[in-house]
Structure formats: C-alpha cells, structure tokens
Amino acid sequence: MLSGLPALQLALLLAAGVALDLLLGEPRRWHPLVGFGRMAVRIEDRLNRDGWRVLRGAGGWMLAVLPASALAWWLAAGPGGVVVHALLLWFSLGLRSLREHTLPIYQALVERDLAVARMLTARIVSRDTAHEDASGLARAGAESLLENGNDAVFGTLFWFLVAGGPGALLFRLANTLDAMWGYRTPRYELFGRVAARIDDGLNYLPARLTALSYVLLAPRGGQLRAWRCWRAQAPAWSSPNAGPVMASGAGALGIALGGAATYQGEIEQRPPLGTGAPAAPADILRAWRLVFRATLLWVALALIYGVAHHA
User: Fold this and answer.
1) Is residue 241 part of a domain?
2) Pick from 5, 99, 169, 298: most CB atoms within 10 A?
3) What does the pLDDT look like over 85-134, one tens digit per residue?
4) What residues form the membrane-spanning segments (predicted)?
5) Does 2 fall in a domain?
6) How many domains, in total, are found in the chain?
7) Which structural domain, as residue segments, surrounds residue 17?
8) What is the pLDDT of residues 194-240, one digit of tens each?
C-alpha cells in the first residue's frame, strides 16, 4: 500500500476516522475544504480566460491540489504521522454531513412543510426546486444521498486504504474541483475538462465498489434487481460513475429515480433509475440507512483484512 502503514493499523485508522466524523462532524470553523473552495474560486477567476483554456484548467488543478497534497504527505511522514492520517480522513469524510443535509428534508416532508423541504433540497442539488412536489423532493434527496455516498464517503475510504490520509485528501480535493469546475457550460466546458476527467479516473473503481455494496446490502430479494438495474441503466447516464452508483442504489431500494428535472428553467429528461414506485419521503431515510450500512461493511471488511494479514 502507498501509505506504507501495516494493513491492520491502516484499518484501525480508517475506523477511527469514520468514528471521528460521526461523533464530531465537519469542523465548524477553519474547515480545510471550505478554505480550499475559496482558493479554487480565486484560481479559476484568474486563470479562466480566453485562449488555452484546457491547459489553463490543468495548471489551475495542479496549483490547487498538488501543494496541499504534498504538505499532507510530508506531515504524514513525520512525527505523529499516525494521528495525521486519522485527522486527514476526518477532514475528508462527509458521512455525517450527508445525514445532516438530507434527513431534515425527510423530516420537513413528513411534516408536510414543502417550503422548508424545497429550501433544504436546493442547498444540496443543482436542479430547480421551487415548484417540486413531495415526490420530486424525495427523489432529489434520495438521488443525492446515493450519489454522494460515493463522492463523500466511499471514494474517500477507498483512497485512504490505498494511500492513507494524503490519498483521501487528494481524492476529496479533486472531487471538489470537479464539483466546482466540471460543468458542461460555456464557462467551464474547456477550463474544467481536466478536473472532470481526473475525477472520473479517481472515481472509477470506488464507484463500482459502491454500486456493488448497494447490491449486496439490498433488502432480501432486491440483490438481483439492483444488479440488473446497474447493468441495464447505468450506460445511459452521461456520468460513467454516477450511473452505476445511482442505478444500483435505486434498484436496491426498489424505487424509481431519474426522469424529468428542471435545470435553469429548462426541463431535462434524464434516463430512468431503478424500478418500482416513485420515491416517497421515507425513501430518503432508507437511502441514508443504505449508505450507513455500506460504510459499516467497508470498515468491517478493512478490519477483517487487517487482522488476517497481521496474524
């Protein structure tokens, strides 16, 4: 492993990082990813100009990601490096954040407060929510949970197991830049191309392991349905990684996701995901439980592997 840590120690650090995230959540002040986002905005504002935009975007990616990653490697290799690995994983994980941003939507829908549910949903998705009904908001919340389970949790855990805390940090920084620059709009189509392709590459294996986790943890009788949805529906999605994750997750839950969504005033017909009844408010809670159980599965498997290779 690139971290140089023994497998058992790495697994214990992974469990510690997950526990820190669940207990403490994201740092309320001086969050490294918040500061990184602000820096990325300044870099993009200065470099995203006419001419050589793809190369400018590549330079911007390196300027944003490589110094922070190099600092993380240096700190992890020094005295107290074991603690640094756990802290970097804590900073990079977003499991508790997923719960804090999505379960209030579920609660607002249960209380039939559409105004609050629309406001909360608008904070986590890019689609227009002003006129969504309860089913549309539930669909958006469930989709966000399933997809971001990979981006905020499983991709981070995967790269932690490969390269320790610095690997987890590099992945989250790259993923953050994709979320900021990876749009197919006139402003970002060229400048954000490198950020989007790097994120696709880093996410390729984690996304498929996430999809497999959703298949394995589907309720009884849902495993085959989740597998079939993954194989049949994922290729229709433009994102090579979001497709497998959301299709398998929707199949595991036995609900219909995808379909029409409004972006900047225009209705976009997206490919279908899953099968069954349209999403209901309770499906947000079910999606969270699926992501949480999958996290426990990853931690358990890492510990089992570590113990087996420690004996």
Assistant:
1) yes
2) 169
3) 999 999 999 999 999 999 999 999 999 999 999 999 999 998 899 989 99
4) 71-91, 290-308
5) no
6) 1
7) 7-310
8) 999 999 999 999 999 999 999 999 988 899 999 999 999 999 998 99
Per the domain annotation, does 1 fall within a domain? no
Q: What mean pLDDT is predicted for residues 247-262?
A: 95
